[in-house]
Design goal:
By secondary structure, the chain is α+β, with helices and mostly antiparallel strands. The protein is 41% helix and 28% strand.
Length: 203
């Protein structure tokens, strides 16, 4: 992580804000619900501390996870509180289900597709700004504790580093929606990211 200067982190936050605006728009268009997405953190975080960003290792989350391939490899996770997941599903298939356990298969599929579109909108904006390809995998959905969900993202990175570069976008609204969009570039991709950030033509 030594290759990232404070200026690099500030530039990366600028790029991430563009991704947040794109994700915010996608969320509103799909559900009709207004939410604010704000990039709250762009910094290296030790692996054991990553679950605390989502409320702690035992916090219940509904996570939609995509691996990212291409010029900038990594992982992106849309982590929602169970209550928020139910509200978003209700925006797609009203009325709201009483619990996640009572959701039907089409509602689970809709939630996963919602997460897919929101995260891909975020990635597309980053890809354009950095001029780097970011190819998302098929989304995977998990309803578990934050520690277990995050562990899946950290397995590959743990082979190369003991900390993750975390780009954290918080989801908040007056309707009670809450969650986080967590982007973690692979350490092996960071030199190319830094090169893109330091290109004279970078916005």
């Amino acid at each position: 992580m030594e290759i990232l200067t404070p200026g690099d982190l500030a530039s990366l936050r600028q790029v991430s804000l563009q991704g947040a605006r794109a994700a915010e728009l996608a969320l509103r268009q799909m559900t009709g619900l207004q939410a604010n997405l704000d990039v709250s953190r762009v910094q290296p975080v030790a692996f054991p501390d990553v679950p605390s960003l989502l409320g702690g290792p035992e916090a219940p989350v509904v996570g939609i996870h995509l691996k990212v391939y291409g010029d900038c490899r990594g992982n992106v996770l849309l982590a929602l509180s169970p209550e928020t997941a139910l509200k978003l599903v209700a925006g797609l298939f009203p009325p709201e289900a009483a619990s996640l356990e009572q959701m039907e298969e089409i509602q689970y599929s809709g939630l996963m597709e919602l997460g897919n579109i929101v995260t891909c909108s975020y990635l597309n904006a980053l890809s354009v700004a950095l001029r780097m390809s970011m190819i998302p995998s098929v989304p995977m959905l998990a309803n578990d504790m934050a520690g277990a969900v995050v562990d899946v993202l950290l397995i590959e990175q743990g082979q190369r580093s003991d900390a993750a570069l975390v780009i954290l976008t918080e989801i908040r609204s007056q309707l009670g929606l809450s969650g986080n969009l967590l982007m973690m570039p692979d350490p092996a991709s960071l030199p190319r990211v830094v090169e893109a950030l330091r290109t004279p033509s970078f916005p």
